[in-house]
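Supplementary material to the annual report.
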Amino acid sequence: MKSLIELNNISFEYNNNKILKNINLEIKEGEKIALIGKSGAGKTTLISILNGTKSQTYGDIKIFGKNFNNLYNSHKRKIGTIWQDLRLIDDLSAEQNVNCGLLSNQNLIFTFKNLLNLSTFYKAHQCMELCQLNSGIYSKNLKNMSGGQKQRIAISRSIIQEPEILFADEPFNNLDPKLCDYLKNLFISRLNNYKIKFPNTILFSLHKIELIDGFTRVIGLKNGEISLDISRDELRDFHLKNIY
Amino acid sequence: MQKLKLNHTVISFLPILLFLPITYQIINDFHIGGLQLFLDFVKAAFTPKINNQIINISITRLNETLFIAFISWLISIIFGCFLGIITSDIFYKLIRIPVLVKYILKIILNIIRSIHELIWCVILIQIFGINISIGILAICLPFIAINAKVISEQLELVSADLIESITTLNGNNFSSLIILIWSPIIKTLKNFGFYRLECSIRSTAILGLFGIGGIGTSIFLSFQALNFNEMWTYIFSISSLILFFKLILKQVKIKRINSNFILLIICISILIIFYSIYFVINLLINNYYLSNLLLSKNIFLNFINLPDNYLKSIFDTVILSVLSSGIAISVPPFLLLISQNKYFIIILRFLAFIIRTIPPTIIILILLMFNEPSLSLAAITLGFYNAGITFKLLNDNLSEIDRNNYLAFKSIGLSNRSSWLIGLFIKQSKSYLSYCAYRSDIIFRETAIVSIVGSIGLGWQLKESLSSFAWNEVFIIVFSYSSIAIIGELLNDKIKSRLI
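Predicted assembly:
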């Protein structure tokens, strides 16, 4: 399998606090990674460094074999993120928010069409349908929606982007166990009726341990350091006790 | 001795003490020369002239006013939006243009904004002559800068997290920018845009007094002819227009804007931008007076020949704005405190509305009927005109807040006034003072209106210099106005940030 991401001795400091310490990690194509750890262990920071929104204090990252700063836009477009705080635009409708995921592949005219509702966006509808969102809310403003609906809109926004790698920070927050399972399986199996290309490589930060079934690899963070990096099959209870 | 501790409530009332020197001067300068004229003016308010001819003139003049106000509003909103976007931080985060451009634009816009539309009007009239398009231009210049500031401030509120999340989608930079600014701009235009139309109507009425047309011109002409009955008809008609306009705005609640309508607005905006640019370029190229002025005289560098009484004029202007601000801050809470009666408050609301509607130029001319021109007279005029505005704001806010504390204090036997003060006003005093700090910026700019007529300060000096075509003096005065306004604004920003 091709190596997509390489992290060498990555450290991140904030206000003289070491959030991440000497992280060495290699992510290969097709891996489904579950990132676990206590709150404050550095999971969100690691994801922010991986998607390029935070710069490491020390160390070196290579994505698609290139330094992040040297990545072409065509490479960056292959990376998607689902944020813990969702980061949706409250004043836009569900459909408009989902369409924002297409920004990387579309031109300015599409943006105006989206904002002015000038056409029907079937792909956005398909992604929302996959996330089991009711068609009645497609054109509704986000302000009056529940946490679960917003969560699924954020997931739909990442699906429509069709990235090759997807980083997700607590993507199943606010969802009931049945939906969590359904959506997780969608990302693991990548099978759907609409031929939407799901990301082949995923790294999901998870708090609900019961969701790690189906992932191929489990990485555990403790006090900013990788204290666990094994395949799902090797994972035992004592590993988890050590992390939490 | 215990040290006096100032809090927001005390600060709101304290400026009432300014009335001591002001009243002293006004009593001292009082004369009965024009008292009969003043009584005629007051009597005429109850017997406005109503006949077919006056009604026809009123309608024609109101149409003119609306036309000027609407066009100025439209242009200033369109250019304001555009400049607001390109002076916001978010623009430079997404579009690779040197940030220096933003700073240069902001400085230019701050200078344009710091000069009141009336000053722009008198200068432009002197250069280009009187016509409606000059009135529109005079209103547009500061209004564009004001709108740009508001839009840019609203765009600063877009969270860094949201910017980060959209930029990580790696779309076209312009698309990302439009996605991020779309909602804040639509929201600002919905909340603030129509209020600016009302401001535009008021400004058109004021500039009308200086000849650009509309109802203001009729008010001034009938005042000059001492035809007060006719003048009141015009004042009532513009008041009715503003009132009608406000009622409509209260009824209209825009929930969702039709996309075709937005598309139409975008097309019209593009046309207006091109036409406006063409108009201004044409105006500048074809005006020989302006070209001669700029080429033949070194007006920008001749700082040696300061106007007579230059420093005194600056001092007077600063004192005038301090006194007027003091009146505008302290009068509304003081009147509400002493008038704990429903009917009295209704009368106060009516008076506040009337005083907001009569242009301050007319108010000062009326007061000059029985008083000498003085700093106090100008301060009373400008102070009360603005008190009409601060009164409305305070009264509206007080009627919206929870009255439980007020009722609790009343139930334990406190008087109405004490309960009002500590149960209601104390809650509002901070936000009221914060608004007043913003208002005092406007008051400084408005000193131009009263000082041009009231023989006081820089405005009067400007009028003198303009009438003698002393362009170097005009430049120095405008520069001074702008500098003081910008310094005042910086000080007020500090006060506001401490209050908020």
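The mean pLDDT of chain B is 87.
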